[in-house]
Structure formats: structure tokens, C-alpha cells
Specification:
This protein is an alpha+beta fold. Helix content is about 45%, strand content about 20%.
């Protein structure tokens, strides 16, 4: 039996800040109403006794005949963003109803179905895209502000408005809850296709990991938080003395900077690093000091300390609910709340000192001590951020080795790369060796003599990281090529050398794009590429999708595919030099579906501009919160394919490990962090072996992983 449900709750906890699990377990959190439907039937509302205005007979009917069905492990329960409903059920269902909460294996999620279909995950946006008969009630947010959070002003300041205080609005609140379930029911009917046995197995893994959470050292976090607050206050006073502003006044500070010759238009960490490296902005100048303080105070990793404190507990030291199943269109998990996926690497001066600095923080040292022994306190604490993910006992930390490079070599059939991964595995040296015709033995001899890597290795590394998915000079610059010692002048030759050394990968880009275009042109046929991969189009519930089928048979979806025209040209830069004006080629520009006027305007300036047929689909516009028509190409399709296969390997390996009793607490990109119980016969070797177990569909793939028994999260 399928059951759809939706809770409305109230709490003093802020759901956005603390996440579903901490919110559900907050002492102030209560269930206000529950909308529930059996199969396709009209949903019914149930209100707990504490929130009832009258003893409605309908409530009693739901209480006696419907609520018990949730406790039956044979029934499936659907919700939108089911992680929230699961957390509320685990924390409050028995307390509120006297019945056992649903088991975790019963839960299904219509938001997850939306993400698997590469559609917006929010109930409102998904319903609008699917053009459902039922749409989300627009009055919802006002009703949530009225009943779900303490009032900030008026008669009820600091307290909740209760159903008895405003019976008519509470009836609207219940109707809003009922409408959400009607929308969920329709979504399930429309895109239930995107659910499958294998997908539900991975979703169950996701719920297990999110419900378990990862351990943090709360005492150490509190001490670090106090240090951060103290040092931020001290630096804030210095900042104000320098600028006359508070460090939070971003726009006014930008004006202050512009008056003093600051040219960038943002204050991002990378921008500040670049500016502070310029001798014109030395740290002992007024401008340099202000920028340095701004950089220290705004370390993103410092905010994660408060986030871990907010999300942990309240009954234990665990942070839960940080993974989003199928958060990326490729099927990879994405992160929310704390996001260890983007923890800052330790500062160079702290790489070998972070463990001792962390111990000093645990022992209650002062910010003055950190300054005296290590350096700027905020930078020291930021460099220790990984140490706070720590258990009372060691953990297992295993990371797939060069997984994307291995998969693309396997998919393209690039034999010399496969040979590298089945032997020494040193892909950066091997890539440079192949690109520049330097024997691998010279790399070994150079390191033995000079005690450092051969200079060509850096070129091989940047090329490997930037060029596998049809990237060029721009991709290398974004990957840090200039900062790592390469010159802009030599980048085109590196791109050319890499592509010549990897012709089968270049061929895979073309093969993949051709297969996708043919699948759009000929909807009744399937077109293959790589190993075990294909494209085809299919209409589902009135919507057309392009599907990329992976070797695992899992599908990556591209809604509303089409082939449209795109105007492409390369800008020209005019650079003043002592010798005169120098002309250089600049960034590539493009206009999708250009007007005739746009074509004429661009071609008048750039006669070499061209119009090309490109694949388009409906998706999230890059660097934007909006959705619309976007274009793509073979390199991006290959990237999606490779990352999708990587997600399949992680899911397969993690399910293997869980089935053998290993308790995974976090998945961080291609890394798995788990509890370690040697007394149960567990070992690092077995955990690693389970993660790299090859599925039947991956014959010939040189999958490998490396790991360690750790005191804290290290990657």
C-alpha cells in the first residue's frame, strides 16, 4: 500500500540553520497537523490533541483507522523531502500518537524523483514545470510564519500563535497541508518512473548515513567558537579604527577600497589572495591591513564551526542530514549545512602543525597563545577545521584513487592510460612523459637528485585536472595553472600536447555528442558510445527526455532536449606594451538562438564568428538560481557520464560495506568515512576491498582506493 503524508510543525529552532534532524529533536518542536492519503484517495487531516480546537470526529477516524497503517512495515510512505518527515516521525510520532514510527525502509521521496528527472526539487517549482492540476498553495509561507515560528512583533512577541488564537487561519493551515499531499500524489503519478529497485536501495543507504550522522568534538568546537568570537571582536575594532566602518558593511567597504585604488569588483577569498600577493598592496599599508583583516574575518571554514555546533545533538555529538541524495544531476551526492566537501585546506605554514594546534585548542589555549606559537589565530583555527570531525575511537577513511581519470581511460579505451593504472598509477608523470616525450625514468632520476618533482609533472597535473572534458586554456587558468607557475603563453601548447597524447578521449567527446544528437533527431532509436553507454529519447507524462544510459543501466536525464543554433566567436584583446599595441585572442563567447541583428553585429566585428548546431535542454542556468534552456556539448556529456559512473561505484561499494556491518558516517566526493570496530573483526583492508568490488557491468575497469585508520577526517 502507498501512503502519502506531509507534516506541519512549529519550533523555536530554525530549520534552515540546524537541519531536519536537529530541528526534529529540539525540545520546542511539535507536530501541528498531519495530512495523509491512502493510495489515490483524497487526503485527510489529523491534528494532535494539543492543537485541536474541537474534538472533530474526522480526527478520531484518522487516529483509529489510518495512523496505524504508518507503523505497518509493508506499507510504503511517500513525502516531499522525505528526510524531514522521517526525522519528525523518528523524534515525535510515538510521543504524539503512541504508535511506533515508520521504519526507515518504508520511506520514499518525490523530491528525489524530481532530482533524478533533472527537474527542480522544490514542490512549487516541480509542480509548475509538470503543469499539474494541483499546485502548491501560495498562502503557505504566510501561514508558516504565523503558526510555525515564534512571533517577532505584536501581542505574541516571543511566543507562538496557537490554533485557538486564530481558528480560521489554522483551518487554512490544515488546508495548505492537505494541498501539499495532493501535489505529492500527482508528482508520484507523473514521474514515479524515475524510481526503481536499485534507486531505492541507494536512497535507503542515503537515509541510513544521514540518520547516523558524523561525530564532532563539541567541547573543542565550543572552545574554538569562543576563540573565533574573541579574535573577530579584536580584529573588528582594528578594522573600524582603520576604515571607520564595521567589517559587515560590505558595500561601504567596497566604496572605501575603490577610493584607494582597489580594482576588483568582489571580495572573494581568491580575489583577496591575489591582491595581497601584489607588492602594491603590502600588508603594512592601510589598504593592505584592511584587506588582510577582512580576509581573516570572513574565512568560510570559521562559519562551519558555528554550523557544526548548531546542527549537532541535542542528545549526542553527531551532525546529521548533511547529504542530499542525487543532489547533482549525475547522481552524485551533494552537501548541505556543514559541507565537509569544501573544507579549506590548511594554510601552508600549518600543514604539519594543525594536529598540535588542535590539541592546544582542546586544552583551552588563548588566541594570544595561537598567535605566539603558530600565527594569525583565525587562520590557525581555520586550518584545524577537519580535526573537529572526530570520534572517541579511530575511524576508517578510504578514498578512490584518481577515479575520474581511471573511468575516462576505461570508457575511451586509452590503452597507455589503462597501463598506467594497472601498474604504477602515477598519471601526472605519465601524462607529462607522453605529452613531452620525456622518459618516465627521467622523472624518477630528477626526484632522486633534487628531492622534488620534475618541473614537467606540474604541467601534467594541471592538464589532467583541466582538460579531460574538452577544457582549454580557460579551464587550465581556472584550475590554477598560472598560480602554480605556468605562464599563459605556454598553455595553448600544453592543451595541444595533451589532446595529441590522448586521441581516444578526444574521440570520445565527438562520439558522445554525435550519439546525443542522433538520439534527439531519431527518437525511436538508441545510439551507443563508450563502453556500455547509450543515448535515447522518450516521452514520459507529456514531457520529452533525452536519457544517457550508463553501464549500470542507471539513467541521467535531460528534459526537453533540442538542437538549436548558437553564435560562437572569440574575443580579441588589445594590450598596450612598450612596443605598441599587442593583439591577443581572448575568451570564447556564445549567444544561444541569436537574432539576425545579433548575428550581423557580431560578424561585423568578428568575421570569423560562426553559427553551429548545439544540443539544448531544460536545466539550472550556471551561476544562477533560475532554470531555463541551456546548451551543452560532448565534453560536458562525457563529464556527466564519468561522474555518473563514479557515483555508481561509490553507491555499490558503500552498500557492500554497509551489508557487512561497516557504519559509514559521511560520503565526501569519492571518499567514505566510517566507524571502525576491530573487535567485530573489521579491518581497513576489508573496508577498502568492499568499496572497490567491481560490479558485473564494470569488467576491465581499473578501480582502486587507498585509505587509513584516522583520528579525524583528513582529506
Amino acid at each position: 500500500m502507498n501512503i502519502h503524508l506531509d507534516y506541519e510543525t512549529r519550533s523555536r529552532a530554525d530549520l534552515t540553520d540546524v537541519g531536519a534532524y536537529r530541528y526534529a529533536n529540539d525540545p520546542s518542536t511539535e507536530i501541528m497537523c498531519l495530512a495523509i492519503s491512502i493510495g489515490d484517495k483524497e487526503p485527510q487531516i489529523w491534528v494532535p490533541r494539543h492543537a485541536r480546537i474541537t474534538l472533530d470526529e474526522d480526527y478520531l477516524d484518522v487516529e483509529d483507522n489510518v495512523l496505524p497503517l504508518l507503523s505497518d512495515p509493508r506499507n510504503l510512505i511517500f513525502a516531499h523531502n522525505a528526510q524531514f518527515e522521517l526525522a519528525i516521525s523518528d523524534a515525535l510520532f510515538k510521543k504524539t500518537t503512541g504508535l511506533n514510527p515508520p521504519a526507515h525502509h518504508q520511506w520514499r521521496c518525490t523530491a528525489a524523483m524530481g532530482r533524478r528527472a533533472a527537474l527542480p526539487a522544490s514542490l512549487k517549482n516541480l509542480a509548475e514545470f509538470l503543469q499539474l492540476k494541483n499546485q502548491k498553495d501560495s498562502k503557505g509561507m504566510d501561514l508558516i510564519r504565523k503558526f510555525s515560528i515564534p512571533q517577532k512583533t505584536g501581542t505574541f512577541t516571543g511566543t507562538f500563535i496557537t490554533p485557538k488564537d486564530d481558528p480560521e487561519s489554522f483551518k487554512d493551515f490544515c488546508d495548505y497541508c492537505l494541498q501539499d499531499v495532493r501535489v505529492e500524489q500527482e508528482i508520484h503519478k507523473k514521474i514515479g518512473f524515475f524510481s526503481s529497485d536499485s534507486a531505492e536501495q541507494v536512497f535507503a543507504l542515503d537515509l541510513a548515513i544521514n540518520s547516523r550522522g558524523f561525530p564532532v568534538n563539541l567541547e573543542a568546537l565550543r572552545k574554538a567558537d569562543d576563540l573565533v568570537d574573541t579574535e573577530t571582536e579584536r580584529l573588528g575594532k582594528i578594522f573600524t579604527d582603520l576604515t571607520g566602518l564595521k567589517h559587515t558593511q560590505r558595500e561601504r567597504f567596497m566604496g572605501w577600497l575603490k577610493e584607494r585604488g582597489f580594482k576588483p569588483d568582489n571580495l572573494q577569498s581568491a580575489t583577496l589572495d591575489e591582491v595581497l600577493a601584489d607588492e602594491a598592496f603590502e600588508e603594512d599599508t592601510e589598504l593592505g591591513k584592511a584587506l588582510k583583516i577582512k580576509k581573516l574575518i570572513t574565512f568560510a571554514s570559521l562559519a562551519k564551526i558555528k554550523s557544526m555546533l548548531a546542527c549537532a545533538g541535542p542528545h549526542d555529538n553527531r551532525v546529521r542530514g548533511t547529504l542530499t541524495y542525487h543532489g547533482a544531476g549525475t547522481g552524485r551526492w551533494s552537501a548541505s549545512l556543514v559541507q565537509p566537501q569544501n573544507f579549506k585546506r590548511p594554510a601552508a605554514f600549518m600543514e604539519s602543525l594543525s594536529e598540535q594546534a588542535y590539541k592546544d585548542i582542546c586544552d583551552g589555549c588563548s588566541s594570544e597563545w595561537l598567535e605566539l606559537v603558530y600565527g594569525p589565530p583565525l587562520e590557525v583555527i581555520s586550518s584545524c577545521i577537519r580535526h573537529f570531525i572526530q570520534n572517541d575511537s579511530p575511524m576508517l577513511d578510504v578514498d578512490y584513487s584518481s577515479i575520474e581519470a581511471r573511468i575516462i581511460a576505461w570508457q575511451a579505451g586509452e590503452q597507455w592510460r589503462l597501463d598506467v593504472f594497472t601498474t604504477h598509477g602515477r598519471i601526472y608523470e605519465a601524462s607529462a612523459s607522453t605529452m613531452f616525450g620525456v622518459p618516465l625514468s627521467e622523472f624518477d632520476a630528477y626526484r632522486a637528485e633534487h628531492k622534488k618533482h620534475h618541473p614537467l609533472r606540474q604541467k601534467g597535473k594541471v592538464a589532467e585536472l583541466a582538460l579531460a572534458y574538452r577544457g582549454g586554456v580557460g579551464a587550465m587558468v581556472k584550475m590554477g595553472a598560472i598560480k602554480q607557475g605556468l605562464t599563459e603563453k605556454e598553455l595553448p601548447e600544453i592543451v595541444k600536447a595533451w589532446r595529441e597524447a590522448s586521441p581516444k578521449i578526444v574521440g570520445l567527446w565527438k562520439q558522445c555528442e554525435t550519439a546525443a544528437k542522433n538520439a534527439i533527431k531519431f527518437p525511436s532509436r538508441e545510439f551507443t558510445f563508450g563502453i556500455g553507454c547509450s543515448f535515447y529519447t522518450k516521452k514520459i507524462s507529456g514531457e520529452r527526455f533525452l536519457f544517457m544510459s550508463l553501464p549500470s543501466q542507471r539513467l541521467i536525464a535531460y528534459p526537453r532536449p533540442d538542437i538549436k543554433q548558437q553564435l560562437v566567436w572569440q574575443e580579441v584583446k588589445k594590450i598596450k606594451t612598450p612596443e605598441g599595441i599587442k593583439i591577443e585572442k581572448g575568451d570564447w563567447k556564445k549567444i544561444l538562438m541569436p537574432s539576425e541583428a545579433q548575428v550581423q553585429k557580431v560578424m561585423a566585428i568578428y568575421p570569423e564568428a560562426r553559427i553551429a548546431d548545439v544540443i539544448t535542454f531544460y536545466g539550472k542556468i550556471p551561476n544562477s538560481a533560475h532554470w531555463g534552456t541551456i546548451s551543452t556539448h560532448g565534453g560536458v556529456f562525457v563529464e556527466n557520464c564519468i561522474q555518473g559512473i563514479a557515483a555508481d561505484f561509490m553507491a555499490h561499494g558503500a552498500i557492500n560495506a554497509e551489508s557487512k556491518g561497516y557504519e559509514i558516517v559521511a560520503l565526501i566526493h569519492d571518499e567514505a568515512l566510517a566507524h571502525f570496530y576491530p573487535e567485530k573483526g573489521q579491518s581497513l583492508e576489508e573496508f577498502t576491498k568492499l568499496l572497490v568490488d567491481l560490479p558485473e557491468w564494470a569488467e576491465g575497469m581499473p578501480l582502486a582506493a587507498d585509505g587509513d585508520i584516522v583520528k579525524f577526517y583528513k582529506k
